Amino acid sequence: MDKAQAKNIIEAMLFVSDKPLFVNEIKNVIEDLDAKEVKNVISDLAKEYDDTQRAFRIKEIAGGYQIVTDTVFAPWLQKLYKTSGADRLRGPSLETLAIIAYKQPVTKPEIEIIRGVNVDGVLKTLIEKNLIRVAGRKETLGRPILYGTTSEFLQYFGLSSLDELPKLEEFNITEQDIELPEHLRKEEDTQGDEGATQGAVDGVKKPETLPQKEAQDEIKEPQEENR
């Protein structure tokens, strides 16, 4: 297979896919190419799009590659295609998701202290949308569930990794703004030492992941709120 044909096939695959494609997925379809050759073809395609000022770009998202429209056309596309209310995240969900993204892994009580409100309903919504996941348990009193973001989170916001998250300074926010109060941090440190000691006595190990059902059990049935 020559390079031109490979480029056309990969471009077609990226065009029809509604999610980022991983190199291995492409390589499994085009068996004549190895991973390095696939990446080179994608790089050539991306450069061609940039050089010819096309309306599309090839972007690395969540470890895969996807054809996306250039952000310069966003105002017109927003008029043409409006995200439905069911898919759009509202203020409380975005605020909670931001805390999880920047502070992960983080517990529900920690999120509630930072936000100052109950987040049962919001966490339930974010779990249902598969934007957050259970990342383990914190080795402190009660061993509360820890939450982190998912690969779907990266895809939703068009990020290749968490390193691409905007700096807090861009929003006029500092690390201190999303930190727990000092007296609570000291209290958690003390509880963490006690929890670690008890865990050693009981032979309890921190799991890598926990079933999402445990998160649902931790979250109370939400009252009415804006999600």
Q: Globular, elongated, flat, extended or rod-shaped: what is the shape?
A: elongated
Give the helices and strands as they follow along the chain: HHHEEHHEHHEEHHH
The order of strands across the largest sheet is: 3-5-4
Named CATH architecture of the largest domain:
Orthogonal Bundle
Q: CATH top level of the largest domain?
A: Mainly Alpha
Count of the separate structural domains: 2
Describe it for me?
This protein has helices at residues 3-16, 23-29, 35-51, 74-80, 91-103, 108-115, 120-128, 151-157, 182-202, 212-218; strands at 56-61, 64-69, 106-107, 132-137, 145-149. A three-stranded antiparallel β-sheet has the order 3-5-4. Residues 192-209 and 221-227 have low confidence and may be disordered. The longest helix has 21 residues, at 182-202. The protein is built from ten helices and five strands. It is mainly α. β1 and β2 form a beta hairpin. It has two domains: 3-78, Winged helix-like DNA-binding domain superfamily/Winged helix DNA-binding domain (Arc Repressor Mutant, subunit A, Orthogonal Bundle), CATH 1.10.10.10; 91-218, Arc Repressor Mutant, subunit A (Orthogonal Bundle).
Secondary structure topology:
Layout (H helix, E strand, L loop, with lengths): L2 H14 L6 H7 L5 H17 L4 E6 L2 E6 L4 H7 L10 H13 L2 E2 H8 L4 H9 L3 E6 L7 E5 L1 H7 L24 H21 L9 H7 L9
